[in-house]
Amino acid sequence: MYKIGEFSKITGLTVKTLRYYDEENIIEPSYRNEENGYRYYDEEDFKKAQLIIVLRELEFSIAEIKDVISNFESPDDLSYFLEEKKKIVQEKMRKEKELIKKINLYINPERKEANCMNYKVEIKNIEEVLVASVRFKGKYSDVSKYIGRLYGVVKGNASGSPFNCYYDDEYKEEADIELCVPISKMIKSNEVEVKKLPKIRAVCVTHKGTYENLNMAYKAVFDYAKEHGLKCSTPSREIYEKGHGKIFKGNPDNYITHIIVPIV
Question: Which residues contact 25 (CB under 8 A, 6 or more apart)?
Fold first, then answer.
C-alpha cells in the first residue's frame, strides 16, 4: 500500500489532483482509514493511474476519462476507445477547417462578395409530379439517413433530381421534412410512400454554391414576394440538381440547388 504522498511521487499526479479524482470517482483509494481519513493506494490503483496519464496526454476530457474508466476491463479495450477518440478529433478538425474558411471570408471581404449571388427570381407553374417519399421529423442533416433507403426502393425508376419538402414556415431544430425522388411509374412498397404532388404556382430561384449560403436564396425569394405583394406558403422545396455524391462531397462551390416556394 502507498500513502497518498508516495502515490503522488510514483504517478506524477499531484495530491490535489488525486483528491479531485477521488471525489469524481476516477481513482478511489483501495483503502481509507476511517479514523484519520488517510488514503492508501495499491498496485491496481497504480495501473489505473498509468491509464489515466495516457488518456490525459491524449487530451481526453474528464468526462471521457470517467467513461473509459467505468467501461475498461482489459488492456485490449484501450484500442477501441482510442479509435473512437480519433474519430472525434478528426470530426473536430473538419469543423475547425470549415471555421477557418468562414473566418477567411471576413478577413478577405472581396472574396465574400464574390460568393454572393445575383439571384434571378421567377414565378413558375410547377407541374404535378409522381414521387416516392419518406417524411420524418428531425434535423436537416438527418436526410442522409433516409436517402439510401429511398433509392433502394426506387431502383431504376428515378426520373429526376431528389428534393426535400419543408412543411414548416420557419427554421426549426426538429423540422418536418419529406424527402422525395421523382419516379417514372407507380411502384409498390411498404417502406416508402408513393404519391402525386399537386401542381403549384411558386416563386423560384436557383442557388449555386455551398448549402451553408442557401439562406441568401430564401432571402431573395421572400424579398421578391414582399415587393410584389405575394403570400408564401408551404411546403417549400429544395431540388438538388447537383450536390455531393454517395461517397465524395466534391466541390461545394459547384452545387446547384433550386428553391421553390409556393404562393397563394
Answer: 66
